[in-house]
Fold this protein.
Amino acid sequence: MRSDRRTFLASAPLFIPFSAFGANDRISYAVLAAGGRGRYVSRVFQKLGAECVALCDVYEPYLEMALNDSPQARAYGDYRELLDKERGIDAVVIASPDHQHAPMLYATLKAGKDAYLEKPLSRSLEESTAMIEAVRKSKQVVQIGMQRRSAPSILKAKQLIDDGVLGRVTLVKAQWHWNISAKLDNSPLPGKLDWARFLGNAPKRALEPMRFRRWRYFWDYAGGNMTDQGTHLMDVVQWFMNTGAPKSAVCQGYVAKMEGAEHPDVFSAVFEYPNFMATWTLDYANSYRNGWSILFLGDKATMMLDDAGYKVYAEPWKRDAPPLHEEKAPVPVETHVENFFACMKSRQDPNCPVEIAARAVAGPHLANLAMVSGRKMKLNAEGYKAS
């Protein structure tokens, strides 16, 4: 450790920084959970001119890495202490494991700060409802990190569907292939970890390093890739099809190669909507068409959407036919953060408010319930309750 200021879990100085946002339009912010995603989003914030003044994490090595990007920031091990002492910040980035999303958001709202909260919104259908209520009782701007909502290429693709280019869409296929599955690493962790603070309100248990390293694959902390990747893709499905959450879901999955995990690394879910069907399939043991893609099948044309852009092919499909429409474009996080910054000033809802995020994760939550129960699960749209 290079200085007392960086001592893990040490109390930060009782210092209330000047809020630059009101004076010269420079946003000051804090990061709650400085793992890989938190550090990435923080770098985007700084690239766009914001200043990181405080960092929090329960794992010392993550704090050290984050301080390399933001050496001027004060370090904390307890997010409540950070929010209590750093009263001059304008915004908070929340990039924690899913089970900490709601507690950290509630504390951020109570402190009167705007929030950029990573997806998925919640860990359960019931939690989604409570989080919406909490945000709407506050005056804060909350952007959920579903960056496709701010991507120009995605917006253009949606317009094509709105214009009727595909005709009647009867089936949508979302998938994610990535050959990364392997036995979970349960070897000792290097550096200090505050395991009790990591657990938070999750069930108490002895430390298993793999539960910290790969928290997404354990029910106590997350909904697996079903809700993590599924939130992005099912949001696009519902957004493009101008519909809400699905009426029902069935699902099957299993752990193929990720030994030690509770969540499957191979699964397939089927969702029922009023006028079409959708599937959401993931295989983390295969890299064919590596990454994510969504296929919209219409009676006039077909759209393939992925991280490279989109292509539209006329019906009837011919193997060598060129696309009717095509655009190659990535999905940048920067435009989503820019939208958040603009809404912090205007006090309007951002491109992905909590209601959209709740609808996006509702289907994946329902599919998890269907997979565990072994039966078809239906969604009561009033309050996002399953039956």
Observations:
- Residues 152-331+354-386 form a domain with the Dihydrodipicolinate Reductase; domain 2 fold (CATH 3.30.360.10).
- The radius of gyration is 21 Å.
